[in-house]
Amino acid sequence: MWQQVRDYFYQNMDTYLIALKEHIWISIVTLGIAIVIGIPCGYLCVKYPKHQKWINGFFQTLRIIPSLAILILLIPVMGTGMKPAMTALVLLAVPPILMNTVTGLEEVPDFMLETARGIGMTEKQVVRRVCFPLAMPMILTGIKTAFVEIIASATLAAKIGAGGLGGLIFTGLGLNRTDLLLIGGVSVAVVSILAGFLVELLERRIMKYKYIHNKKGVFRY
Fold first, then answer.
1. Where are the domains of the chain?
2. Cα–Cα dist 73/84, whole Å
3. What distance in Å separates the CA atoms of residue 101 and residue 98, rounded to the nearest whole number?
4. What are the residue ranges of helices labelled H in the chain?
5. Model confidence, pTM
6. Considering the chain, what percentage of its residues have pLDDT values greater than 70?
7. 2-220 maps to which CATH number?
């Protein structure tokens, strides 16, 4: 089997790199769209509590539907390719970002808000300079969760011709080739781990005040 894996990379490296690039591109674009939808919707849920159950319930209901089922339902409307795949992945990724945004904003201490208003900040300044910076750790956790779920679920995109590493997995299943299953599965796992690591680095860069540097390393408090 290991010989087959080596032979595959030797003969099909260009094809593999194209599939890897497609998978990463789909995942990053989908995450960006999910962030643009999830964070504002989370803010609206906190600002207008009466609408929270409707907004949250809408995305949670859509999330219950399996991604493959959504893909199949979208084919008559959008056809095959990137659009239906990314739509299904966005519906999967929005809920964790939305829920963590809501949780992060709701956990901002009232005295911080009162202090900010007391020193003359406008409501927009309070939201921008107090609420979101304090909620950022929870928001980044939601983004990390969504990113990993997107990368794992993006393998289904190959079912409707959107490309990605899923093509290797489905080809391996169809031809009963363990080497292709191994290459595809391990690649998706590695990309997921790297994605989580990159979000951790982003959190460290954004939330520098939460880290202490000393001779023994970096410790969070």
1. 2-220
2. 9
3. 5
4. 2-47, 52-64, 67-78, 82-106, 110-118, 123-126, 132-153, 166-175, 178-206
5. 0.83
6. 91
7. 1.10.3720.10
Count Cβ neighbours within 10 Å for each residue of 123-156 and write b for 16 or more, e otherwise: eeebbeebbbebbbebbbbbbbbbbbbbbbbbbb
Q: Report residue 97 CA to chain centroid gap.
A: 8
Which two structure tokens, joined as six digits, stand for 43?
């803010």
| Structural contact between residues 34 and 93, judged by C-beta atoms closer than 8 angstroms | yes
Structure tokens at 86: 């990314």
pLDDT of 128 strictly over 60: yes
CB count in 10 Å sphere of residue 217: 7
Split at pLDDT 50, 70, 90, the class of 116 is confident
The residue-averaged pLDDT of 50-64 equals 78
Please, what sign has the CA dihedral across residues 125, 128, 133, 138? positive
